[in-house]
Every structure is written in structure tokens, then in C-alpha cells.
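Discussion board: Methods & Data

I've been asked by a reviewer to show the raw model output for two of the constructs in my manuscript, not just the figures. I'm not sure how much to include, so I'm pasting the format here to get opinions. Each protein appears as its amino acid sequence followed by a line of C-alpha cells. Is this the kind of thing reviewers expect to see in a supplement, or should I convert it first? Here is construct A:
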Amino acid sequence: MADLPDWDLFQSLHAVLTAGSLSAAAKLRGLTQPTVGRHIDQLEKELGAPLFLRSPRGLQATELALALRPHLDDMAAAAQTAIRDAAGAADGTAGVVRVTASEIVGVEVLPPILSAFREKNPQIDIEVVLSNRIEDLTRRDADIAVRMSRPTQNTLLAKKAGSVGVGFYARPDYLKRHGSPQTWDDLEDHTIIGYDTRPPTLPEGADFGRPVTRDIFSFRTDNDLAQIAAVRAGFGIGVLQHGIARRAGLTQVLPGALPFRMEVWVCMHENLKTSRRMRLMFDHLAAGLAEVIQDGN
């Protein structure tokens, strides 16, 4: 069987696909740009086909490169998992735990919980991935996830921390200037903050009783943190979790208008339950989130 290309070459390919350019890929890998360029040239030579088309707009990935990407993602995730596991091999509690959560939870909720964990477990390093995309725990993109819906994969160990409610909120001085809406129809006379191109994922059964489209919003962004920042700045009325809104000193309007709740779950792959450091983080997150949820509700 013919020799396979060196894994180092595939790492550079994955870096270019991830970063989008040779220079950015070089920074990502800690190499020089010419070195990454030579890796790509060598890999193309060994595969016998181009991986990128060079144009004034930069590098355009070919079908071959795009076909290889999911496999490279899997290999990169496996390599990172091996590094994390190896870091904790000598001591059952020392090492790295990689946690993933949504942007809102990661910025507004997790920092004090993770700070308390670090004080108790200084031998454990923490990596945090903030994304509204659900990371694949079966592939170990992350070790532990905080999710806003019930997990469906049978291979996951999951614990429900509680459920959070949401409502319409605004800054007090905005309501002083514009008045407080008393009905849904009154919202038409206010500045509403909401999504741009990606409608939010709502709990099953959630119903506003009327269509919700982007044109009803005067401030549009798909970034949840930007929406919260706009409400805090007094731009208008937006939808926030009760606990986050109250800690920010915001005032609720139309109480009860959004009666649905979102479940909060802590999940990890069942194969990790024997890892001491993973279990420490799993239990700490479940307890910390439950406390935050109870205080916020």
C-alpha cells in the first residue's frame, strides 16, 4: 500500500480551511506562512489533485478539500481530546476540562460558577467554547455542555439543572421616556429589539399567538449578546431571561406575555463519568446552575 501523506500536512490543510488564508493558518499553527504554503503544495503533489484555487480574492477550497474537511475536523477533535486526556493521566483530578455553552450562558451565567470551581480545583484548567451551535459531545468537541433543551442522544449522561423563564424587558429610563406597553398591540408603538436573519430556537409548544418576523424589530442582530447590550443601553424593549434581566436592573413589561420556559441541562458523554475531574465539573455546574436558576426565578 502506498505511503500516506504526513499528518503534519493534513494539520496545515485543516488550519487553512479553518482560518481561510495561509497567513492566518500559520498563526493558528505557530508556523511561518512559507512553511504552511509548502505543506499545502506537498500535500497537493502527494494527493495528485489541487486543494485550493488561487485567485485575487484569496484561496478557494476545491471539492477535494471540502470533502476532506469533516474527516479533518474529526481528527483534530480526536487529537485535542488525546491531549486533554493525557494531561490528566498522571493525576485523576489534574488536567483540562472543555466546557461548551451558548453565548448568553457563557458570558452572563458561567463566569462566577467557573471561578468558584477554579478556587476549589486549581489543578484543573478550563477551556470554554461559546457557540449557539450544539457541539458534538460524542466526537468530544467539548467534554461537558450546558444546553437549553433536553438532550436526545442516548450516549450522553445528562442532569437537568432547572428551567428558566423569559419576558419582555427594558431599561427604566426608556419606559419613562416612552411609556410602558399594556398590551401586545402597544408594542407596535415601541422600539423592539430582535433577530436579523436567524429566528431564535423556541421551546416546543411556544406560541406568541401572532406571526413574529424580522420586520417588527427596529434593532436587528443575530448576536444574542448584542441584543442584551442594546436593551441595557436603553435602545428599546427586548426578550431576556428573567434572572439576567433582574441582575441588570431592567424592568419587565407585559408580565406573563411569554409563558414558556427553557430547560437547562448539563451533559457529558457517558464514557467520561469515570473521570474524576470531569465528574467534579459536571456536578459543580449542575449545582451552580440550579442555584442561579432558583435565584433568578
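Construct B, same format:
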Amino acid sequence: MYQVFVQPIPKQTPSKLRGFLRLSPKKIAIIALLLPGFVFQCLADEINKENSKENSKEIIQISAIDWCPQICLDKNRPGYVIELVKKIFEDTPYKLEIDIYPWSRAIKNVSLGKADALLSPAKSEAPNLLYPQLAVGYQQMCFFTLAESTWRYEGVSSLKGLQIGIATDTSIEELNSYVKSHLYQFQFQPYHERYLAQSFAKLEKKRMHSFLFTKNSTLFALHKQHKKNSIKVAGCVSKAPIYMAFTPINTKKDKIAEIMSVFDKKLTALKKTSYINKLMISYHLSTDS
């Protein structure tokens, strides 16, 4: 049983509210019972509208690799490249679907049109793909050795007689031609989630003198695997921009052209804000990393 206590209506009460307050106690009680259901239905309708809007978006299928801190498998910390790309396509007609593969397979997926985009190659790593004007970051390939090693990379002449580990289908920038003409010096291995752990082990077992990989990812893995005191950087090659690259398949050319246009426009706008700087700092990186 509801008890409703009605007090006199103050003269300054707005007219619409005065009208409501003149309702009988029984009607007010009925409204009080129905109101929560009405509010719940309104919220449900809004959620359905948002879901419908999201479902109507065109999907961008992305092939990527496990390459932390650029691209990570942690849902809460997915990597700065993933966070940046999601921000770029926020409030656009597109939604992203990202699948993780070994590097060579990821490149092949996009080259053949099985996926729309690749994260995140240097141009020399996948020269047949289409590239927007703006990059999503930079990579620098560095040599890593055991901490007690006195060797350091100081140009191609310093590579003589060494056995060096390298990931298949990666670009070594100014060393690309040297690698091609001195294949016997390089131990190629497909890049996948175990690449760095296997490279650390081969180095520690003295099966090679050094290995090459991206600086940020290797330092990240050394810290995570508690090896930062046993393996060190022994020189680097030049930096190269990395991109969200797109399939060249002709049947998708209109879709890809529109996506790249949106990408460059949104990233240009983001570069005028503090978003990218704050994002990089959150991963303990500089904006030119």
C-alpha cells in the first residue's frame, strides 16, 4: 500500500510542475510505478541505436603481428600503433577487425587481398602495397649482442666474419643490399611470437655473434624476460617510418582510396593535438620512436 502525502503547492512553482502536483495521489503512485520501466526502455532504445549504428559500419580487415610495444596482445594495452589507428577511425563509417599472424603471412594476406590493411611495415618490407601519405610511427633496426661482447656495428666493414640472426621479410634499410650479397653471414628465421626468445637463446648458446631486430620491441622483450643485463644494443642502422599499408588488389581500389583519404585527414588533425605525444609517453617512448 502506497501512502502519498500532499503538501500545498508554492505559488512560485512552474506551471507544468504545478499541473503535475495537482494529480491525485493514486495517479502519482501509478506514475511512480511506471517511471523506472520507461527510463529502462529509453536506455535500451539508445543502446540498440548505437549497436545498429556500429553494425552498419564497413569493416576494415587488418593483418598484424605480435610486435609489442607497437602491437600487443594485451586488450588493456594493445600497443601504441593499435591505439592510434583505433583513434583515427573513431567516429568514421569504418570499424576495425584485427587478426594476428606471423609477419610473412600477414604481408601475403594483404598482398592477395585477403585482408584490407597491414600493420605496420616500412615501405621496403612490402613495396607492392599501397601507402597513405602519413606514417604511424618509426622503427630502427639494431644489432644486439651478449653484454660481455666488445664488438659494435660501425658500418659494413665491421660485419666481416660474423654470423647474424635476422627475421625474414624485414628491412635493414642501408644494409639491405649487403644482406643480399652476403647471405651466408645471416641466419634467417620467420618472425612470430617466439622470434625474440629464440634469438636470445641462440645468442646465449653462442650459435651467432649478433642478431638484428627493431630496437623498441627488443628492449621491451629484454625487460619483460629479465635479460636487460645480459644482452645489449651494439649499434643501429637508420630509422624508417612505418605505415598502415593497404592491399593493391584492383577490385578493392575504390574502398581503399576512400579509407586512405579518411586515414590521412584524421591523422593530420590528430597531429595538431597532444594526443600522439601523450600516447607515446604512456608507453615510455618518444614521438620519434
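Answer (T.O., handling editor elsewhere):
This is acceptable in a supplement if you add a one-line summary per construct. For B, something like: The chain has a mean pLDDT of 89.
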